[in-house]
Amino acid sequence: STISPQAYFLSLAETTKGNAGALISQAISSPRLFHFSELLHHPNISKSASANHLDLLELFAYGTVSQYQSNSAKYGVLNKSQLFKLRQLTLVSLILRNFQLKRRSISYDSILQELGMDQNCGASMRELEDLIITSIYSGIVEGKMDHKKMCLVAHGVISRDVKIADVSGMIAQLEAFEEKNNMVLTHLCNSAEYVQSSHEDDTKKWKKVEMAIREVRNRDGVAGRDMSNPLAGLASLGGGSMVVEATASALERVTGYQQIDRKSKRSRGGVAGPMYAKRGD
């Protein structure tokens, strides 16, 4: 199997004896390596590399182009491939910040400014397009270029290295996220139990209603009616208003609902269906 870039440079670090600077320069120039913290904290590197080279490696692990431009004397002069790599990493950081703000579209002007490139130069625009295309094909950015709107629409991006000092904060955020998820899960479970319990109670209640209606129907000699909807069936029961009133009384006894008086609309001797409300409403 193909060895990963991180594993390759870490294996070189194992055998490095006083030549850490050359290894660091090679690492930050590699087109396949985008994470540097393991190399930065390797004992052979931290012991044998100069302060300048360690600062440079830290810049590629956590920094951006603007940080380099604000203190270029500290880091020295970057060659073309190294500057290209730092701009790729800066693009990654820019996309990550926009993702935190729920934004996926980033204008070319914003990217040019972030990468320290001339916004009014056609050559810079071509360089930007080459950088974005290379980053997409390298797998560090997922997205597409919208030339009509002059923006990059990002769908995904790799992570940057995480400083050891930031790990505790990340753990706290993950723990808070887990706590919120547990609260939501508990609420959903309680809601599911309530719905199940209500369903069971309603089932028992309507069984009692059906039994009460059957008692009234049998007592008054009414049979063969549709019992699929007991409430709707009240108006169609045989025996006229006496049966309706008797059935309503039975429903009130079983369900706690009582009949509301209203003017009955009669048509061809029919009886209008009763209305019900919870007792005491």
Describe this structure in words.
The protein has 281 residues and is mainly α. Helices cover 60% and strands 9% of the residues. The strands form two sheets. The protein has a three-stranded antiparallel sheet. The longest helix has 56 residues, at 164-219. The model is unreliable at 234-239 and 262-273 (pLDDT under 50).
Layout of strands and helices, then pairs:
Blueprint: H1 5-14, H2 20-29, H3 37-40, H4 43-48, H5 51-62, H6 65-70, H7 72-75, H8 80-100, E1 105-107, H9 108-114, H10 122-138, E2 141-146, E3 151-157, H11 164-219, H12 241-255, E4 257-260, E5 275-278
Antiparallel strand pairs: 1-3, 2-3, 4-5
Helix pairs in contact: 2-5, 11-12
State the main characteristics.
two-stranded antiparallel sheet, mainly alpha, 281 residues, elongated
The low-confidence runs, each spanning 5 or more residues with pLDDT under 50, are 234-239, 262-273
So what's the overall shape?
Answer: elongated
Number of strands: 5
- Report the radius of gyration as a whole number of Å: 38 Å
* Tally of individual helices: 12
Spatial gap, N to C terminus: 76 Å
Strand-residue proportion: 5-15%
Oligomer: single chain
Secondary structure class reads: mainly alpha
**Helix-strand sequence:** HHHHHHHHEHHEEHHEE
Spatial order of the strands forming the largest sheet = 1-3-2
- Overall mean pLDDT stands at 83
* Main sheet attributes: strand count, strand direction, barrel closure: 3 strands, antiparallel
Which range best describes the helical content: under 10%, 10-25%, 25-40%, 40-55%, 55-70% or over 70%? 55-70%
